[in-house]
Structures are given as C-alpha cells and as structure tokens.
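May I ask for an example protein's residues together with how it folds?

___
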Amino acid sequence: MIKDKFNTLLLILFAGLACLSCRDDDSPVVEGEDNPDREFMTMFRSERNGVSTSDRFSSGVSGVNDIQLYWYGVDNCAGYHLKSVIQGRDFDNPYDLIADTIVGPEVLSMKIEDLQYNTGYRFAIKTISKRGPEYDSKWFGLGDGGHPDDYLNITTLDRYAVPDVLWVEDITFTSLRISFNLASDGNYKEHFEEEGGKYIMDQIKVEPSSDNPELPGKIINLTDADKERGYVDVEGLVQNAVYIVNGLNNNVKRYWDRLYNTNMVRMKGEVGDPILIQHIFDPNDSIPGAIPLNACRMDTVLRNYMSDNTLAEGTTFVLEGGKNYYMVNSIAMSKGFTLKGNDPNNRPTVYLGVGTNASGEGLSCNFSFGRNAGNGEMGGINVQSICFLDINFDCDKAYNFITKPASAGSGMGNYFINQNSQAMPFAIESFEVRNCNFRNMVRGWIRFQGPNRKLVDKFVIDNCIFYDCGIYDNNGRGYSWVAGDGGNANTNLFRDFSLTNSTFIDSPRHALLSENSNLAWPASTVWYIRVENNTFVNLSTRTADRLIFEMRYTPANSTIICKKNLFVLTRAGSSDNRSLYQAGMDIRQFIGLKFDFDDNYSTLLPPGVTTPARTDGLFTSYAFSATNRGAGWGNGSLNVGGIEATKIKQGSSGIEATDLFADPNPIGKNGETDMHRHNLNGFYYKNTDQVRNHEIFKKDIGDPRWRANVTP
C-alpha cells in the first residue's frame, strides 16, 4: 500500500518542510503561533518534491487534459481536503475553485478529468484530523514564492485545431448578435462532427466571465430556423459586463471537446464623471510602511473597478496633486481606464509597494496587462485604452545590486508593468504614459511574457523622466525598458510606437527596446517605431553591448525613426574610473525596412576617457552607422538621409556635459552606492553663450524640458 511504503520518508520530509506552509485558513491558532499537535502536512508526490517523473505514482498530466494526483499518506488521520484553481486565481474565491473535495484516509490519489486545454492548474491539500479542525494540518500548496517546494502546478496539453464558426457583433449596452457559419471545409473531421457538410452545433452559451461571475448567463438551444438564419440575438445582458460566448455540440461526451472557438466580449456602458480617489491618511494603517510616507492606499479602487459592471470601461480616476498614494497588490488591467493627477505641475506619487518583509527586503507590486484565465475563459481580452498622466511612480524600499540587503542575491525584481506568464491573449487600442516620472523600477519597466498573442495598436511614452532605476545585477541588465518576449508570431507591440521628449538618467538595462525571436511574422505585422527628442544620460554603460534597439528579426516593411536625440556620457570627476560603454542597434533582417536616422547628437567624452574605442565619437559597439547590423546597412541605402545622417554628431565645436548642463555628473564614483545617482535638476542647460550657440540648443536636440533656463 502506498501509505505504508512512504510513511518513513514522510516523517523525514515533515521535519524539514512543515515550516514551509505559509497560511492556515481553517485553524483558530493565533497568528504567529503554531499548534504542535497538528496533523502532519501531507504533500503531493511530484518532481518538485524529489519524485521522478518516471515514477508511476508521480503527479502529472494523464493523456492530454486530465490530471492525475498522488499524495503521501498520514497514519490515523480522518482524510484529506483537496482544492484546485487555474494558476493565478484565488483559492479563497469560490468562483475560482475547479475542485474542492474531501476524501477518506484510505484515498491517496485522484484523477481530475476533462479540464480546460493548455491551462495551468494549481493544487492544494491538507490532512484532516479526527480531533477536529483546529488539529488539521497546514495547507500544502498555498506557499508563496519564498517557499518554492510548497506548491504544485500542472499544465494540460494543447487542444487540437478548432474551426472558427461563430463571432460576436452589434454589441450594445444589454444585447449582442452571435453570428455563425457552420459550413465545413473538411479540415476538422477528426475531432468535429458533421452532418450534410455542416458542423453540428445545437447550443450557444453566453456565460459571465470571472470578472463578474455572479451574473446570470443565457443558454440558447438552436432551432432549425436559427441555423438557417445564421445568427441569434441575445437580450437582457448587463452593461459593462464581460461574457464568454461558446457554441457547443452536446453529442460529445467531454465538455471541453464540445466547444468550437470561444469569444469574450465586454458590453458597452456610459462613462461617468471622473472619480476622485480622495487622499485619506490613516495614522493607524495596517500597512506600517505607509505611515512614514503619509500615504493613502489606492490599489483596491482599481482592482474593484476591473470587475465592477456599474462602471464603464474608460472611467477616469483622479489623484490629488502633491499627495502620496500606495499599492499593496498588483493590478491586472483587464479594462481600460485613465489614472491621472489633478495638477500637472504638482504631481501625486504612487508607491508600487511600501515597507519591508521580515528579511528587511523591500516589498513591491506592479501593474499587469490583461489577466490569467478563469474557468472557461479562452478567447482573450480586448481593452480600449489605458492612460497614465501627470503622476510620479516609485517603490518605497527598492534596492539595486549595489544597495541590496545581505539576504538578496541581486537587485529587487520589480517593474512598472510585468505581464503574467499565464496571461490570456491581450489586445489594447492604446497605451499612453504622459508627463510621468519613474524611479526605483529595478528589474524592468514594461515586460511582456508568455506564449499568447499580445497586440498594442498605439503605444505612447511622452514627456517622462526615468531615473534611479536599474542595476538589477552587476552587469546592469535585468529586462529591457520595453521587453518583448518573442513568444507568438501574432504579437505586435510596436505597430505604432513613439518615445518622445523624455529623459533616461543613468538607469542600466539590458536594452531600450527588444524583441528578438526569429518568428514567422505574418504580412500584417509591421512595426513603426519613433524615438525622437529624448535625452539619454549614461544609458546602460556598465557593460558592453547593452543596446538601444535590439530587434534582430524585424518584420518586413517596418520603419524605425531615430532623430534629434541627445546622448551624454559622464563621470564623477577625474578620480572616477568607471567604464562608459555605449551600444547602438542590432538589426539582422532588412526586408523592406526603412530607417530615418538624423540629427542625433552627443556631448564630448569626459576628460581622460580614451577606451574603449569609439565609433562616431560615442559607440563602443553596434553603432547606428554600422553597415552590417545598423541603420547604415547597404552603405545607408535604407536611410532617408543616407549613411552620413546615421552618424552621431557633436556639432561644429563639441561641448562637454559639464559645459552644457548645470550639474550632470554622478553623485558617486565607481563602486560607490551613489555611482548611478544624479541631481535631477542638474540637467537644466546653462544659460551661456556656449550653450546658445551650439547646435544642440539651436536645433532643439534632446528632451526640450532642459532648455527652460536658457534665454534665447
């Protein structure tokens, strides 16, 4: 019997792992205390717990979309309580539970059948005591990221190809039309029944999504007249709500095999007046890190909005100028909105995490594009517009590689936006960040990841400052400022991308923009990238080959514009021996590619900097003017102004950074805590004849904000 065979091993494992469980929802034991008479915490038999995948009693996928679970037995217990959710969902939310089952003490395995295809599932289990709930074991499977063995994730395999037979149109506040075409082309006969050359579909379901799971759904049993007409109209839906639309063939035994293509749709709604998130400071806030900042919590407002069908997509939320706000939990942005300060000249600050954990490491959170799927959700999320305006973003206790606590191996792994790896397909009409400052975003700024499609129709960054960011590791890498994942050929992050009038101050990153996989881009995927009138100060200078454009396999017929940008390399005086690397671009696919590179300038190298060698007075590798991987490809034949326009200029008489700016040098020299920090106001231009007469000023090169002190 499995129970007898593994009890000895179980006792050994419990001694070392019982402390890994992070929470016990059912025990009345006081927080911070433990009950030494609890039952032993059982565990799933899995590779994470040292069980080989070849072991016949190892948990895993059975077939394609069934999952077989095995766990260790505990002598003299009353049984076991098992729960399951889709990865990224909440064990405490009854709408998210896929399984919630109690079995007897003799049961040490369970097969969960007919699960959603290509979906990650998470499992939890606890031992039930004969002496009552207060003696139940802790839950195995509810651990956080700091307890790596205390969870079990299993992902079902991909579904076979599915024909697109139905779609949604004519969406109103409370109604929609579901159109369908059941004519078969003969390509899906292995898995989909046909009759008379048409797919069999006898039912359509319109069900609430996990954004609003409490709403009723609609079931339409199709008549012959419906099938002949090719559409059905559905009334009585709820405005602003999200629904999942499926067509089914109920002749098929297994539920997930009954479905054709899935559609997700949000109903229309009237956008109301802007909502002020009033700054209310609680001196007894349960989040201690908020108190020294005089900060008001605001993430709950946006998290509730995502599932609130009384508020239409496109709602504007307003923060009070000059006040501090904070977030505790990350926000999955599945619904368009605007978040703005009410005074562009006195911006509020939003802290993406405040305070520290028990090890003294800072806490962080972030925004995320889209969200993980709920039960039955497969179609993807479509979002109208997300805008951030007139806000400072920070992380209270962020640390980089130089300032990290002894307990940390690298800098903080935080971001402004970090898409979940299991996020559903995602499309957004526009994403805009205007007049915002970003500080202490250490590992990345915007990171896309996961295997599903991601579409951004319009991507705007304008009039922003990025400083005190980066240095995730000793090489100053982490993820690029905008990091594509190259996971899906139907992804397009750069359809209409513009980065303008912004400044990046000494914030090392892997690259500025990256999307590197060699994918079979469809003809409809074309990039249009514009980087213009920005100032880059010591952009990723710690190590070689940290690029501005790292986009090796660019889709055909794309355009990259890079004009009127200013590049600045500085050191903290003659005793600062830091290396100042600067790389440009790596493009390896030039089919139909168009460049418009011109009027990019740099200040002179700091005194005494002679190595590494430079191309165009700036680049240590991968220069813009390179004829193999740069905008100078084909001797400049693809660039509007030819190869000379791709070269960095320094003007008829060069100007040093200390002559152009008031105080541009780093605060600390190489190896010091402040070696990548600067006086932010030190980048205003000096009001001198040398500045006024230089091309950088006369041609409006770089971020225009720094010219404000100069009298023409």
